[in-house]
Write a structure and sequence with these properties.
heterodimer; A: 706 residues; alpha/beta; FAD/NAD(P)-binding domain; 7-stranded antiparallel beta sheet; 5-stranded mixed beta sheet; 16 helices; 41 strands; B: 390 residues; 2 domains; 8-stranded mixed beta sheet; 9 helices; globular
C-alpha cells in the first residue's frame, strides 16, 4: 500500500473523496483534487512519458511544476501532472514523443484583459516572502503577493520536522508545516496586502508589469513600482549515468509526495548529499516507513548540522563520506545504484565500488537561488530586491528576518525613510551562520534527580531548550554571547518534565536519573525522544545507542508519554547506570537494510549523464559541441537545444559551468545564458483570457487592496 | 600588423555566411563582433522563415540562392539546420487581400517563382483547423520553407572556422580611418585592422558603424517580438502569413518548426522604433488573440518563451548592398529589414563571387551577372517605393 495512512508526526488527511480515472485505459482510483502525479505514484506508476529524443522513460522529478518530466496527456491535452488536480473520469495517458494538438473548431470567443496595480509585487509566499509582505504592508505599501502554490509557506509545508532557531524569533522547535500556518495567518491579517495564491508569476516585463497565471486559469498583468523576489531555491541536479531514470528524484519532490501528499513512492532509497536537506530527507523517509540504505557525500565531512548527522546515523542510516554515485541502472526505472569512494582529487576508486538494490535515488546536493526575475528586473532598471533563498541559501529561520530586512531595503529604494533595523540584521546573521566550533563536555553521572544530558556540542543557532524549560534550568553557555552558544544545565532544578527533550530539533537532549529503588548505582532511567510510530507498550525492549550510534545495551521501556505540543514520544527506558549518560536514542532501522555488495566495475562513462533534462542532452554531447565550435557563450548551447526545453534552463544552468570547466575553459570567461519570459509554459487560450471578457473578479486597474 | 583581404563587421546572419564563402574562395577573412559570440545580434531573434516569394528581382534572386544553399546544407556538410520545405501561405479573408495577392502573383510568376493561388479546401488541407469562416484561399509557394536560425548560424560559423576565417569577439569597432576615399584602418577596442575590403554587416548597428566612416545609411531599427511554443506532433506545413492589419497590429505569421514547436511573430502598430530588445507585456495578448482567431486549435498550445529583436529598416523596405562614394572599399550590406536570416546565405555567396570577379565601386558586380542586385539595392536609389511583402 503506497498511501500513508498513519504518520508519527504529520497528520494524513481525513475523509477525502475517492474518484475513478483511467490511465492508458486502465481503471484507477485516486483522491479528488490531489495532483494527478500523486494519484499515479500511489498506484505505483513510475513512467509518465517516453521522451521524443530516444524514447527514454521519464518519471516524476521535481513534483513542483518546475521541470516538465511528469507531463501526461490528460483529457487529450499535454499537462504537467504534478500541477493538475485529479478529477473524476479523467482520461490520463502516457505521453509518447510529442503530444497531438487536438482539432478544435470552436470559434475564438474574444480576448479579455485582467489588470491589477500595486506598489510592490512580492514573488513567492514562503517564509521570507510572507515576512517581507507583512513588513511592506505595515509600511503602507499596496502589496500583491503571488505564489504558485495553493497553500502558502513555501517549502515549510513539506517539513514535518522541528526547526532550529529560537522560539521567540522564528518558532524554533515547531514543525515547518505548523510554522507555515502561523505565518499565513499573520499575512492574511496584514492590511494593504493582497494574496494571489495558486497563481505563479510567469513573466516580468520591461514596462514594469508582471504576467500572473491566476489560478492556472487566466492571465493578469500586474503593474508595479518595485519587485521583491522571494521565489526560493531549486535543487541542483548532478551528473551520473542514469540520472534521468524514473526513480531519481529531487529531495524536494520526495518530501512533496511523502509529507504533503502522503504517498510512499519508494520502498528503498539511497540519498546523495549530506546537507541538512539530504539528512532530513532520510529522516522523513524513515518516518514514512521507507528504507534508507545510506547517504553518500563526496566531501570528507558531512555537510549538515552535527546533531542532524548524529540522529540520522543513530536511526540506522550510514553516511558514506568521500563517496560518490558511479551510476544508477535499471530497466525503465531505478533498480540499482553503485557507489565508490573517491580519492583526493574526487576521482572514483573503482576497486571500492559497491551496489545497492534500491528503487529510488534522492538527489540533495544543494540548492541554487530562483533569482531570475530579480536579474531581469535589474536589467530592465526596475527597483528590485531578493529575499530568502533567492538571496542566499539558508535556513527558514534566517529567511524570516531576511524578508523583513529586504522589505526595508526596498522601501528605502522607493524613498521611504525607514531606519535600518540592526537587531534584525544581527539576528539574521546568527541564524544563517554555518556551524561553529565543536565543544567538549564532561561526562554526566545519573543522580537521584532528573537532569538533562546534551549531545549538542556543535555551535549552531538554536535555543528552544533554554526557553522551554519551566524552571529556567537550561541556558546557553556564554562564549560568543549569541544564539550560537551551546546549552548547558545551569540552574540544576530539573523536574523531569521532558519539555527540552521533546522540543529539541536535533533530538540531542536526554534526561537521566538513578533508577528509584535501584540497588547501589547499577540502574538508571533515561528519557529519550522518539519521533516514530509508537504502538509499543511498557516492557518493550529497545536497542539503546550512544550519540554516534554505537550499541550500548538493550533497555526496557518503562513508560511512554506523547508530548502533544511537539508531537514527540518521550520514552523512559531502564538501563545500566554506567551507560545511561551516553544513551542518545534507539535503533530504528534494521542494519540488514543497509547491506551492499561489491561491484566489479573498472570505468563508468560520466559523459552519458544527462545535463539538460528537458531535451535530454548529455555531458558528452555538450563537450563535443563546445570543442567543435569553440563555444565561449552558454547561449550557443541552444543550437543543441540545451536550455530550449520547457524549464528554460532552470535545472541545467547550475551544472553548465562545470561542463565548461571540464572542457578546459574558465566558466567565468563564458558568457552567461540569457533569461526571457515565460518562466512557465501557459496555453495561448489562457494567456489571451479567451472568453473572459469581464474582469475576472478584478477591477481594471484596481489597487491591490484585499 | 596583420593584413586581411576582407574584414567583416558583424558576426551575424549576413556576416557569417559571407565570411565562409569568401574564405572558400581563398580570401583571408576576419570577422569582428562586439558580442561574446556569433549570431547574438538579431540572428538569435529571427524566427526562421526563408522565402523567395518577394516582390522584386534582387531579393527574389538572393533568396533563391539562400533556399538552394540552406536546403542542401545538411546533405553537403552533415550539419543539421532543421530546414523544412513547408512553403509559405499568405491567407486571404477579404476581397481586398485576395485582389492584391492575385495581382502580385502575376509578377511573381513572371519572375519564375513557384507560387500559385490555392482554394480554401487546399488551405485547410495544409493547415487543418484553420478558421474556415470567410476564408477565400491564398497564395502558396511550396518551395519556400524555414530553418533554425541558431543552427544555421552555428553551421556557417563552423564551416567558416574550418575554412580559416578568424572570428574576434567582444571587440567593438571604435573608429574607421579614411584616406583618399578608402578605408585604410579600422580601430577596435583591441587593436587596428588593415584590409583590402571592409564590409559593414552590423545589422541593427549598421548606421552607427557607417557613421564612423562618415557615411550615412538610412537604416533605422524597429522592435518586434517573437515567441515559441511547446512541441507537438506536426499539424501544419506552411508558414502562415496574415497581412491584415487591425488597430493595434500589422501582419503576423507563424509556422511549425521541425522540432514541432510553433514559432510566431507580429508587427506592432504603430512601429516601435529603437533598439530595445527587452520583453514587453503587450506582445502576447496582442498576437495570441489574432492567432487563436485565425487558428482556434492553437488555444490549447502552450507558449514556452518570448523574445524581442530588431528589424534594421530602410525607408522602402529593401536592403542596401552598395559601395559608398565616401569609402569605395567599405561595402555596406545592411538594412535587411528583418530578413537578414533569409537573405544572408544567398547574399554571402553572391558577394563572394563578385569579390573574386573584380568587384569595385564602379563595377560592383565585377564580371558576374549580379549587376541588377547592386542597382536595385543601391544606397543611392530613391527609396520611394515600398515592399509589399515585408
Amino acid at each position: 500500500m503506497r498511501r500513508i495512512t498513519s504518520h508519527p508526526v504529520a497528520s494524513p488527511p481525513g475523509e477525502r473523496v475517492e474518484v475513478q480515472f483511467t490511465f492508458d485505459g486502465k481503471k484507477l482510483a485516486g483522491f479528488q483534487a490531489e495532483p494527478v502525479s500523486t494519484a499515479l505514484s500511489a498506484a505505483g506508476v513510475t513512467t509518465f512519458s517516453h521522451h521524443h529524443k530516444g524514447g527514454g522513460p521519464q518519471g516524476i522529478f521535481c513534483a513542483n511544476g518546475q521541470c516538465s518530466q511528469c507531463t501526461l496527456v490528460i483529457d487529450g491535452l499535454p499537462r504537467k501532472s504534478c500541477m493538475t488536480p485529479l478529477e473524476a473520469g479523467m482520461d490520463v495517458r502516457t505521453l509518447v514523443g510529442h503530444p497531438k494538438l487536438p482539432l478544435d473548431a470552436t470559434p475564438f470567443a474574444g480576448a479579455g484583459k485582467q489588470a491589477l496595480t500595486c506598489d510592490i509585487l512580492v514573488v513567492g509566499g514562503g517564509p521570507s516572502g510572507i515576512a517581507a509582505a507583512v513588513e511592506l504592508g505595515k509600511l503602507g505599501y499596496a502589496v500583491i503577493l503571488a505564489d504558485d502554490k495553493a497553500r502558502l509557506g513555501g517549502k515549510l509545508v513539506l517539513q514535518t520536522h522541528k526547526f532550529f532557531g529560537s522560539e521567540e524569533d522564528c518558532y524554533a522547535g515547531v514543525r515547518g508545516i505548523d510554522i507555515a500556518g502561523k505565518l499565513e495567518a499573520e499575512l492574511r491579517s496584514t492590511p494593504n496586502v493582497r494574496v494571489l495564491a495558486n497563481s505563479p508569476v510567469v513573466g516580468i516585463y520591461k514596462d514594469r508589469k508582471a504576467g500572473i497565471y491566476l489560478d492556472y486559469k487566466s492571465y493578469a498583468l500586474v503593474e508595479f513600482r518595485a519587485l521583491l523576489v522571494a521565489a526560493g531555491a531549486r535543487e541542483k541536479s548532478i551528473l551520473f549515468p542514469g540520472n534521468d531514470l524514473p526513480g531519481v528524484f529531487g529531495a524536494g519532490a520526495f518530501q512533496t509526495l511523502v509529507n504533503r501528499d502522503f504517498v510512499r513512492p519508494s520502498k528503498k532509497v539511497l540519498i546523495v548529499g549530506s546537507g541538512n536537506v539530504g539528512l532530513i530527507a532520510a529522516y522523513h523517509a524513515l518516518q514514512a516507513g521507507i528504507e534508507v540504505v545510506g547517504i553518500v557525500e563526496i566531501l570528507g565531512k558531512a555537510n549538515g548540522y552535527k546533531v542532524h548527522v548524529d540522529k540520522i546515523v543513530r536511526m540506522g542510516v550510514p553516511i558514506h563520506l568521500a563517496t560518490t554515485v558511479l551510476s544508477v541502472e535499471g530497466e525503465g526505472r531505478v533498480e540499482k545504484a553503485t557507489i565508490a569512494r573517491v580519492d583526493g582529487s574526487f576521482s572514483p576508486m573503482f576497486e571500492t565500488a559497491r551496489s545497492y538494490e534500491v528503487d529510488t535515488v534522492l538527489v540533495a546536493t544543494g540548492l541554487s537561488p530562483c533569482d531570475e526575475f530579480y536579474r531581469q528586473a535589474q536589467a530592465f532598471g526596475i527597483p528590485a530586491v531578493t529575499a530568502g533563498d533567492a538571496e542566499e541559501i539558508a535556513e527558514a529561520s534566517s529567511a524570516m528576518f531576511g524578508g523583513r530586512i529586504s522589505a526595508q531595503r526596498l522601501a528605502r529604494m522607493l524613498g521611504t525613510n525607514v531606519a535600518v533595523n540592526e537587531e534584525w540584521i544581527a539576528k539574521r546573521e546568527v541564524l544563517k551562520s554555518r556551524p561553529g566550533d565543536w565543544l567538549a563536555r564532561s561526562p554526566e553521572i545519573p543522580e537521584e534527580k532528573w537532569k538533562p544530558v546534551f549531545t549538542c556540542n556543535e555551535e549552531i543557532p538554536c535555543n528552544p531548550c533554554a526557553t522551554v524549560c519551566p524552571t529556567n534550568s537550561i541556558s546557553l553557555k556564554p562564549k560568543r554571547g549569541s544564539l550560537m552558544d551551546i546549552p548547558w544545565y545551569s540552574r540544576r532544578e530539573c523536574i523531569g518534565c521532558g519539555a527540552c527533550v521533546a522540543i529539541c530539533p536535533g533530538l540531542a537532549i536526554s534526561l537521566i536519573r538513578r533508577a528509584p529503588g535501584s540497588e547501589g548505582e547499577a540502574w538508571a532511567e533515561v528519557m529519550l525522544p522518539h519521533e516514530f510510530e509508537g504502538s509499543f507498550a511498557a516492557g518493550a525492549k529497545f536497542r539503546v545507542l550512544d550519540k554516534d550510534a554505537a550499541f550500548l545495551e538493550e533497555g526496557e521501556l518503562l513508560k511512554k508519554v506523547f508530548n502533544r505540543k511537539n508531537r514527540t514520544w518521550l520514552l523512559t527506558i531502564r538501563m545500566s547506570s554506567r551507560n545511561a549518560s551516553r544513551a542518545s536514542g534507539v535503533l530504528v532501522q534494521d542494519p540488514a537494510v543497509t547491506e551492499s555488495r561489491p561491484e566489479l566495475i573498472s570505468s563508468c562513462p560520466p559523459d552519458d549523464a544527462i545535463v539538460c533534462r528537458c531535451e535530454r542532452v548529455t555531458v558528452g554531447e555538450i563537450l563535443q559541441f563546445i570543442r567543435d565550435n569553440e563555444v565561449r557563450d552558454i547561449n550557443q548551447l541552444k543550437s543543441i537545444r540545451v536550455g530550449m526545453g520547457s524549464c528554460g534552463s532552470k535545472t541545467c544552468s547550475a551544472i553548465l559551468p562545470s561542463i565548461f570547466r571540464k572542457a578546459g575553459l574558465d566558466p567565468a570567461a563564458v558568457e552567461k545564458g540569457s533569461q526571457r519570459p515565460l518562466n512557465m509554459e501557459v496555453t495561448m487560450g489562457d494567456l489571451a483570457n479567451e472568453g473572459n471578457l469581464g474582469t475576472g473578479g478584478f477591477d481594471e486597474g484596481g489597487r491591490g487592496e484585499p | 600588423m596583420k593584413h586581411y583581404d576582407i574584414v567583416i563587421i558583424g558576426s551575424g546572419s549576413v556576416g557569417i555566411p559571407l565570411s565562409y564563402y569568401c574564405a572558400k574562395k581563398g580570401l583571408s577573412v576576419c570577422v569582428l563582433d562586439r558580442e561574446a559570440s556569433w549570431g547574438r545580434g538579431q540572428n538569435r531573434a529571427a524566427i526562421g522563415g526563408i522565402r523567395a516569394t518577394h516582390s522584386d528581382a534582387a531579393k527574389i534572386r538572393i533568396s533563391q540562392e539562400s533556399i538552394a544553399i540552406v536546403s542542401k546544407l545538411q546533405g553537403e556538410t552533415g550539419l543539421d539546420v532543421e530546414w523544412k520545405s513547408g512553403g509559405y501561405l499568405f491567407v486571404a479573408y477579404d476581397e481586398e487581400r485576395e485582389k492584391a495577392f492575385r495581382e502580385l502573383l502575376v509578377k511573381q510568376k513572371a519572375a519564375g517563382l513557384g507560387i500559385d493561388w490555392i482554394p480554401p479546401a487546399r488551405v485547410e488541407e495544409l493547415a487543418p483547423g484553420i478558421n474556415p469562416s470567410g476564408l477565400r484561399g491564398g497564395t502558396y509557394s511550396p518551395g519556400d520553407g524555414y530553418a533554425s536560425p541558431l543552427m544555421t548560424s552555428t553551421a556557417f560559423h563552423r564551416l567558416a572556422m574550418e575554412a580559416g576565417v578568424e572570428f574576434h569577439y567582444r571587440e567593438k569597432v571604435s573608429g574607421i580611418v579614411i584616406e583618399n576615399k578608402r578605408v585604410v584602418r579600422l580601430v577596435t577596442s583591441q587593436g587596428d585592422y588593415h584590409a583590402d575590403l571592409f564590409v559593414n554587416a552590423a545589422g541593427a548597428d549598421a548606421a552607427d558603424i557607417a557613421g564612423l566612416a562618415g557615411i550615412q545609411v538610412p537604416v533605422r531599427p524597429d522592435c518586434h517580438e517573437g515567441g515559441v511554443t511547446e512541441p507537438v506532433e506536426r499539424f501544419m506545413e506552411p508558414m502562415l502569413v496574415d497581412i491584415r492589419a487591425d488597430g493595434e497590429s500589422g501582419n503576423y505569421y507563424f509556422y511549425q518548426a521541425e522540432t514541432g514547436q510553433v514559432v510566431f511573430c507580429i508587427t506592432p502598430k504603430p512601429q516601435i522604433w529603437g533598439k530595445d530588445t527587452d520583453a514587453t507585456s503587450s506582445f502576447l495578448p496582442l498576437v495570441l488573440r489574432r492567432m487563436i482567431e485565425l487558428y482556434p486549435r492553437l488555444r490549447n498550445l502552450k507558449v514556452r518563451r518570448t523574445w524581442r529583436g530588431l528589424y534594421p529598416m530602410t525607408p522602402d523596405g529593401f536592403p542596401i548592398v552598395s559601395y559608398p562614394k565616401e569609402a569605395a572599399n567599405f561595402l555596406q550590406a545592411v538594412g535587411m529589414c528583418g530578413q537578414g536570416f533569409m537573405l544572408g546565405p544567398g547574399l554571402g555567396k553572391i558577394l563572394a563571387e563578385t569579390f573574386v570577379a573584380g568587384a569595385s565601386i564602379d563595377k560592383p558586380a565585377g564580371t558576374t551577372e549580379y549587376g541588377f542586385v547592386f542597382d536595385q539595392l543601391s544606397l543611392y536609389r530613391g527609396f520611394s517605393g515600398m515592399e509589399m511583402l515585408k
